[in-house]
Write a structure and sequence with these properties.
With 316 residues, the chain is an all-alpha fold. It is 75% helix and 0% strand.
Length: 316
């Protein structure tokens, strides 16, 4: 069922539209009120972020509404772009080109094909087992042993985060929850909504109330106040939108809490990689947000947790 034809989704869609519209209006007002150099820079950043949100949400909703195939293609492209950003950021040499070719053009598409044909038994082990075994073998065949372990581990980690973890989001569409089989798109929207709201509210609370840094050397903008405000906001909103899920209100709140915390952990890990490489963002694809990986770092860690918790407790 298309999410646009799903009556249960209407309040959430209206809410998202109203939030974006209000944010755009606030930005427009601030543009006329803040005249200082610092104020103009803040408004430009906010404006770029909000415009990017309009586009990202429109693309996501269109793909989700079109059906499973479009959603899989969207996330496969997302994985490809994210993996490219990650590999560009991490050191590699000519000897890695063979392994990288396998990663981009064989392993990545096969991972999503397994989802498309609903072969979940192989999907869950394909990258963590078989790709992990093949990548070092292929790298060894290149004949270059310099920094072999580090080079191989970086490719493996890229496949795990950018491809395997991300693909758990569209995998939700294949969950056979009794009495809920035609509504799994709701669950995907719930996951993405909670993760992104948590990120946004962490940013807002951090800007308004942030005083104590969580880990200043890793992510200077993340504060304890922002974390608490963002996670609590996402937990409350997740509970309020329980009706689009198979969960009870308290279960929706627990799910939202867990995936918000998991998403925060993902953001910290991916920030640590950026700091290690001495860069601020993974790329500049999305104005105001950085690269694709900067936008989905939280989803990388939240999606597998949400998928397996839902599958364990609701798929019989």
């Amino acid at each position: 069922m298309s999410i646009f034809a799903d009556a249960a989704m209407v309040p959430m869609l209206i809410g998202i539209f109203c939030i974006l519209l209000l944010s755009s209006l606030v930005t427009l007002i601030l543009k006329f009120k803040l005249k200082s150099t610092e104020g103009k820079a803040l408004v430009e950043n906010l404006s770029a972020r909000i415009k990017a949100w309009w586009v990202m949400i429109a693309v996501f909703l269109a793909a989700t509404a079109t059906g499973g195939a479009a959603c899989l293609i969207l996330f496969a492209l997302t994985s490809f772009i994210a993996l490219r950003e990650y590999i560009t950021l991490t050191p590699n040499c000519r000897a890695d080109h063979g392994s990288l070719t396998w990663a981009f053009f064989v392993i990545l598409p096969l991972n999503y094909i397994l989802l498309a044909i609903h072969w979940y038994g192989l999907f869950v082990i394909f990258i963590p087992v078989y790709a992990f075994l093949w990548i070092p073998v292929r790298s060894a065949l290149s004949g270059d042993s310099k920094d072999f372990l580090a080079r191989t581990a970086k490719i493996q980690w890229g496949l795990m985060t950018c491809v395997y973890f991300v693909s758990y989001a569209p995998a939700i569409l294949g969950l056979a929850i009794p009495g809920y089989e035609t509504h799994t798109a709701r669950l995907l929207c719930f996951l993405v909504f909670v993760v992104q709201i948590s990120d946004v509210m962490q940013y807002v609370f951090g800007k308004l109330l942030g005083r104590h840094k969580v880990a200043p050397n890793i992510s200077p903008n993340k504060t304890v106040e922002g974390l608490i405000g963002g996670v609590l906001s996402a937990t409350i909103l997740g509970a309020l939108f329980y009706w689009i899920t198979p969960f009870q209100p308290w279960q929706a709140a627990v799910m939202a809490l867990l995936i918000s915390l998991s998403g925060f952990g993902g953001g910290m890990v991916m920030s640590a990689i950026k700091r290690d490489r001495g860069v601020k963002d993974y790329g500049s694809l999305i104005p105001g947000h950085g690269g694709m990986m900067d936008r989905i770092d939280s989803l990388c860690f939240a999606a597998p947790l949400f998928y397996h918790l839902t599958k364990y407790f609701y798929v019989h």
